Structures
1.
Amino acid sequence: MRGATGRWRAALIPLLAVLLSLLIGAVVMLASGYNPLPAYAALFVGAFGTPFNIATTLAHSVPLMLTGLGVAVAFRSGLFNIGAEGQFWVGSIATTWVGYAVGGLPPALHVALALLAGAVAGALWGALVPGLLKAYTGAHEVITTMMMTYVAIQLSHFLLEGGPMQAPGYTPVSPDIRPSAFLPLLVPRTQLSAGLFIALGAAVIAWLILERTTLGYRMRAVGFNARAAAYAGIDVAATTVLALGLSGAFAGVAGAVEVLGVNHRLYDSFTAGYGFTAIVVALLAKNDPWATLGAALLFGALSTGASYMQLSAGVPSQLVDVVQGIIIFFIAADAIIAWLLRRSRNRKEVAA
Amino acid sequence: MDEVLRLRGITKRFPGVLANDRVDLGLLRGEIHAVLGENGAGKSTLMKIVAGMLEPDEGRIELDGRPVRFSSPRDAIAAGIGMVYQHFMLIPVFTVAENVVLGAEPGRGLRFDRREAEREVRELAERYHMEVDPAARVADLSVGLQQRVEILKTFYRKARILILDEPTAALTPQEARELFQVMRNLAGQGISILFISHKLDEVLEVADRITVMRHGRTVATLRPAETSEQELANLMVGRAVQLTSVRPPVERGPAVLEVADLTVQREDGRPAVQGVGFAIHAGEVFGIAGVEGNGQAELVEAIAGLRPAAAGRIRFLGRDVTAWDARRRALAGIAYVPEDRVGTGLVMGFTLAENLALKRYFLPPLARRGWIDRRALWSEAKGRLEAYDVRPPEPGLAARALSGGNQQKVILARELGSDPELLVAYQPTRGLDVGAIEFVHGQILRLRGEGKAILLVSLELDEVLELSDTVAVMHRGRLAAVFPAGEADRERVGLYMTGGRERAQEEEGAGR
């Protein structure tokens, strides 16, 4: 019982943060001469109004779910992986290469191999440089994962702009991957692919690893208190490398799913910055794998609904960026919300 | 003497807890009044009420006979009540003077008159005999001096009632003595002091009156001359407490731990332990006394396998374990209770069950092939929590939800539960109240009775003298002296602790 109420209480603050952000967004709309009610109605319809819209929302959520899980796994180990974007990129690159260069495989195997390539590339990007540097020299992962993101993006420019992965022609784009590596679409003529199931499966895996395996136990012990972990004989350095590797693997799979399910090739600068939004997703979800799915869905819905809101209610879609920004603010400052909660509770006590 | 502060029937409830239950207390002008009680007895709640941090649900506060109401610390400060918290609220990069005047700075408009601030603070320090340099940066001061800055802060705001919340918790014995001197001076100048503590010897030494609290109530108010440590302990705990442990004779077995020529380095490469050698036998408590920072921490960590030996050998049950890592040593039967419960001994965010598994989470029956068996974890935890009387015995509770004494019991349950041959205990009773200390000492002597070896390192000399069969003194990284229990007394050991090795030997030579 206590556990259940504790869980609800923990969920209360992020939920309030979202509601407050929408409220402040409404005030901003009012101040700039828009009526927030039809705007939010349009936002909601745009995100969930039709099966097509729902599918688009889910499609936008999938990469956020996967990268969000990656960031959450690192956070639980006490590591701030802000380089999910870079790990997403190298995952995309490796998957694309396996997608077009490897032929003659049955579809299931080809997809599996391509996903694996993305996971391994992301894992190495997280573990090899940032992980090892953190574990053995103490270099802070915020710096190194960020730097590795720039390296990844420049690497993709090099590969695509006249480099070895450019398809014949002048556009900086890779060859198409083979149809045997396509992830099947769940809803025709949308971007929603079977990648959704991969994201859901990834959440199960993340949860199982964190809560049910000795590796997860080690990671959480190090995350909570590295001194106590070392005292107990846990190899903190190795755990750090593994945790950043695991985190990178999730982000790498996100890139893989985007290539196999949506784009089927690698474009120059094709991402929407999922790896960065993932940080907010993980924060909003308090690094809980299940909640990460929900938070990713929320952000997917916001970005999908925004364009419809602009079209039908005439409210600039940038307003959604404002709402997202305020969510970030409230998550970062959840002490404010906890304080507001306490105050209202005290009031009640006094009234009683 | 007239009464400056009177609490009448103060009651404060928190969800599920009655923290203060109709508390009455009177404070006289110029009096040092100790409030004594175990952790959780309601002392801190009461003091927060007096300091305006909390409002009582019932009851009232009278100042100089007139009822007052504080709705914030500001009100209490304006009424002349100053509180020094256990955790200081100072800005380390500011100077002493800047910290003292903070919030009430002298100057005009936006201009801050630093010189005036320093002059005022210097004057204040002289008036109350609390020497401290107003221009020094707080970060550069010792804990004892930082505490003075906190006290000066209250006087700068014209406090005439001073509340000190466990003021000696972070002090060295020397600093504590200086604090008591300061307290007596202040009382002599008419300042009234409420002194919160759970240390019996301290309140007997410094207080004019002692009020004992238990379960949120005041159970007695006594004068030191009329009472004793034993009576105070019994009142605090609510039953007859065994203050001193009896060591029944135990037959000494073979050597369990043998340390030879051990040298251990600090992080900066300087030696912390230099050529130390000793042996601990089955059924023996080997106590090491000493002033903090003389290499005890490094010695203990080297034995536990958390710090490499720069030179020398460590043998455990006849095997050379010098090259073994911490995990291997723990599994071989070396239990280690670290000094820092919160920072090292426990993972505060973990449940009790997870904390109890900290050293064996990967072994059957707790785990198989990398998967943790939650049910095994919980059922083992349940058993251990009950065996070691942890309250509440809930495996799913977070470690941070427990009191200090119960946290220490969890550590003991983990370390002793797997039947070790050697217990290394570093400051095992630091910060614990009387009941918990009794429990920890009882466990150490139980192990001794079972023929285990115990290395007890403590800064509390009395603890070492009381429990040890052999008493060693550590000074500047060396064992300055080793005595059998019968030959160790406070004076001799104390002399070696302060580095009076030569002096001590001279005196003993002269005595012969």
Note: Chain B touches chain A at residues 304-306, 325-328, 330, 336, 338, 340, 343-350, 354, 357-359, 361-362, 367, 370-372, 374, 396 (CB under 8 Å).
2.
Amino acid sequence: MSTAIDIPIGPQHPALKEPINITCYVDGEQVVGAKLRMGYNHRGIEKAGEYQSYIQNLYLAERICGICGIVHSFSLAQATEDIIGKELPRRADYIRTIGLELNRVHSHLLWLGVAAHEVGFDTLFMYVWRDREAVMDLIEEVTGNRVTYALVTIGGVRRDLPQERAEKVLRVMDLLEEKVKKYKKMCIDEKTLRMRCDGVGLLRKEDAIALCAVGPTARASGVPYDVRADDPHAAYDEIPFKVVTYDTCDVTARVLVRIDETLESINIIREAIKKMPSGPIRVRLPRVVPAGEGVGRTEAPRGEVIHYVRSNNSDKPFRWKVRAPTLANFLSIPVMLTSKGDYVVNIADIPIAFASIDPCMSCTDRAIKFVDVNDGKSWVWSLSQIKRVSHGGGR
Amino acid sequence: MMLQEVIDIVKVLVFPGFLFFSILGLLYEWIDRKFYARLQNRVGPLYTGPSGFLQPFADFVKLMAKEDVVPEGAEKPIFSAVPVFALALSLFAVLFLPVYGTRGIISFEGDIVVLMVIMTLFVVLIFLGGISSASRYSEIGSERAILQLLGYEIPLVASVIGAAAVTVKANPSLSIRGIVEAQSGLWSIFGIQALGFAIFLLAAQAELERTPFDIPEAETEIVAGWMTEYSGKKLALLRLARDVELAFLCGLGATLFLGGPQPVFPGAAGTVISTVLFVVKSIVVLLILTLLRAAMSRLRIDQMVNFAWKYLMPLSILQLSLAVLIPNLLAF
């Protein structure tokens, strides 16, 4: 790396909407190494959760990620219900499933637009985002909100899905299916788009397994890992669906996995509406949660989300831990961005390769790292040291 | 004698010279943005003037009033001179274009060769501007601009020289005037020059750094490429220079391949009609360029150079040979 110059990408950069720093070592146009630095966006949500009740935490959890509008509140509710250990009404499970899948449709379409923009294909970007509005409006109608749904509550859901609204959902699904199929054809046929995506951001199957990649990133490398299928929750045990995998391991595979998953989601929503039983939508659960440990996991659009809750027989959690999918996928980034043998990474490939995991920094950042910008040294401070520094006294 | 000189100065400064082409450039930017937006199902500029038509003017005025920052490590003289030279160069280039009649303000035998030189000088300016800004993004942008030039320059020259082949039959000439006169019957595009026109459009797209060849200023990769560090007045001048260059290349395409401003009849009315003809034809070229921009993704620099040498280069040589050979064969 002696002849290489380092190019800092981020924490502020047009290709990245959120703060993260990728330092790429570049030799000419070729990237020979990459290093990630996180920790620009620590928000202390887990700690804040320890001072609020479980119900309040649902709405805090929802704000972990603006795109996964339902995933985090669902997982937290799931973890809490896991401790209490009471069965939910089936109808609530189905409505939750519909919420999760609507979320996936909107998130995958959003990502497709962003990916198109990263390779300079703004026309596709504009078209996809226009059609994404249809599902956003639908989400508002079904849950009450466009972004943070506030649909899930501990013991069920807060809003029913009456027949006429369900029919509207089905109508929009027909429209979206047609559009998404058109975009799939466009992504396969458009030559310049394929030139930018084929063979870029390579993550081989063995690397994906070794680095614990999750979600579409893993499935595009041929690893059939999907929490919905492996550990069925909500109503996924009664709804048949296909785990989409591709084995070209590049950005094209990730594009196609997400488009095919959108089509699968549309089918899941249809099936869920067809099979949805009648009955109550929630059960009343005690506000005080007995002491114990609970885990909630689901397949977010970006991959597996894990929420761990430890309770101490009060109405507030003792410890709440969130693992967002982007954290699991970050490890793959340096592999994707390092030229090796026949695999050449160009500077132009950095944005699309990075974006192909659908990174979400605000969900992921849990750490603060102290770095001296002049010499690059980093160190660890204890809480009392941080307090002393922030109050103006030295270390 | 005095009057003639005044008329000449007005010609250069107002019509059909600097002012006319500056306004035309900003107008073309609006058409480009509006059509691009409509292709993408957006509305585009909307509020400044009717249908947002004054938006490029407003952008220019706004940028002129903004703070002008020069980076600390920059080569200040070069950095500051580049925008001025870029505008001067593009305004010089438009003087060669015939807006009405068959000759521009400057017209002599061999003037298209000078135009080719000017187009290459543009890239040299871009290189200097980028390399003098002391920014890593600008440096990469500059390198890419030069690499890209290696790809498209020869096809561009070949397509322009090919366009001059229409003059071989009657009155061989390497001047724009000769090319326009030779097209008084049939436009060049109806014939072997259709291929030349296609090559010219692709090369013009690369010269203007627009998708799929906006590699030197790829937004998501290297911020704004060689332009990253420019701000305020300098950026305003650079953008105006870009717009005038856009008008110039559209006008050149219309002149070389679409017959240019054929003189309809003499007098003031003839001048107006001929000018309108020129503007309409160059807008047609502009719309094709915008369509290209909307329909594709950005290529990588290696892919661009590959494409240029594998396909564009052989095709341009083929088109040039055919354009020269066919009239000669027919003469036998």
Note: The CA atoms of residues 123 and 149 of chain B lie 7 Å apart.
